[in-house]
Every structure is written in C-alpha cells, then in structure tokens.
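Give me structure tokens for this 325-residue protein.
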Amino acid sequence: MLKNNDFGNDTDDQRTDRADLMSENIDDLAPVIGVEGSLLDWAQNVSSNWASARVTADTEGGQDDVAYQLYHEKFDEATKTYAENKELLIAIIGDLKKNDEIVEEYQIKGRIPITRGGLKTAIEDWKKTHDALTAAGDARVIPDPLVTEMVILKDEFDNLWRAAIREKDEAVDATKAKEDLFREDCDKFRIVFRLAKIALGPDNSDLRLLGFVPSSEIWTPGQPDPELPVYPNPPETFTLSLRADGTIEVVWTGVAGATHMLLEKRKQGEIDWSLVMNGLPADPAEILPYIDPYISPGIWEYRMIPMNGDEHGMEIVAVIEVPEG
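Here you go.
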C-alpha cells in the first residue's frame, strides 16, 4: 500500500504499484489534469518500462547469485581436497622420518588458505614441489592423480570465479539501468503529481488512481506505521557466513511487522555496537545477499533489530569467528 508521495524513497514494490496505477488510469484523467505529448507517452508506458527493467535486473542478479554459488561450491570442494591431501602428505613425510625442510618447501605449514588467491597459490606451489621431488625419485610425495585432481579443481574454481565476476558486471549494469530509470521516473512522477494537485486538489481521492496519496492519508517515514505492531518480533532466522573473499554474508528471514531492519556489530568483549546498516528491508528478498565487506580477524557479534519507524523491536544476535590470514 502506498503511504506517501516520497517517490525517491519508493521500494521496488512500491514503484511497481505506483507505475501500474499511473499507466492503468492516465488515459481517463489526462484530459482533466492536462497531461499530454511526451509526458502522456511516458505515463502510458511507465509500468511496462519499469517492469522490464526490474525483470532484467532481477534475472541478471539471479544469474550472478548462481555463478557465485557454483564458484563457492567448487572452492569448498578444492579446500576439502587440499586439506585431505595435506594430512596424507604429512603422514607420508612422518612415516619416512624425513620431516625436515620439505614441509617448508611444500609451504603447507599453518592454516589452510581461506581465500581464492591463497588456495590457488598453495596448490600451484604444491604442484611445483611435487613435480621436482617426483623427478628426483623422492618418496615424499602423494600419488600423482591426487595432485592432478587438486590442480583441476584449482583451475575450475578459478574459471568459475572469473565467470562470476563477468556475471557480476552484467548484474551491476542491469541494476544501474534500473536505478537510472527509477530516478528519471521520479522527475516525471513529480510533474504529473503537481499537475494533478492543481487540477484536483491535494486531498482528492482520485489522486490514488494515479499512484499518489491524498494529503490527509500520508504516512510520514520515521513514525510508527499504524498498520504494523509497535514492537515487531525478530526474524525467525538470522545467520552469518564467512565468504572466500573474507567478507561476511548476512541472511535473515522476512519480518512482516517491520518497516525496515537495523544491523549492528561489535567485536566480542566490546560494550558499544557500531552501525552496519539502518534501512535494510524487512523483506530480505529485496536485497539478498547482503554483504558486509568491512571486517577484520576476531570474534564478531552481529545483532539485527526490526524497526517500526523509530521504534525498536526485539533484537536477535549471531556470532562468527573471522580467522587470521
């Protein structure tokens, strides 16, 4: 339901409702309010143009999500294989009682790499050392097919990452096109709104036929929405996951009784919370996945608070550890 005429802050769904009403009813009201020429053409087509831009952006965004999912799945498979092979190699070296500088040469000391670049380099270094030792007849190697499998997985996750980057660029372009159209349409909505207010009056119920809200029915952002509970419940699900690039992915389920969501974080042991984002949609489908790129090693607490205007609902907290390296 449209609650104000703040066109620039429409959600995608609100813009769809507004555009549908405009295109559906403009032919009847255009002679009354004085809309003609190119402005009339815009009003007649704003619904279909917006729907097309939104579908394209959603489709490209979905393909982007699929591409990154495929990459993460292959990266996880490569990480698991690397870890298993590392255990095997260490056991072989220990059994031969030659546990000296060769571990350093393989560069397998310490944590298993968690980034794409780190794992790629680790597998490439392993392959070089493996080939050199095999050529020298040194037994401190794992079976060649296992190394070949790691290299194949490395190439596959690297290629999938590059494909995901391309999909991301296409998704960014489609999203930008949608955002550009959104801003352009805002200007047109404002012009038609001014004409309609002059011709019909600011509180005429026919304004709703064009996607506008009569003055007596306007709800002001920042104030509690009377149609929603004053203190909304938290989302049923609130999860954090560490991505391969070291960023945090935040996922939550929708909260019907909230105008928006507030996300904050702090390092475990700290008293004060720092703001991550105020204004996340109550329906996460509008933005998922949400990524927090500003993270450093340590144990982090995130809390999400459903909001009704400026009123805080019940919070939910999740914890995640970000390792070094």
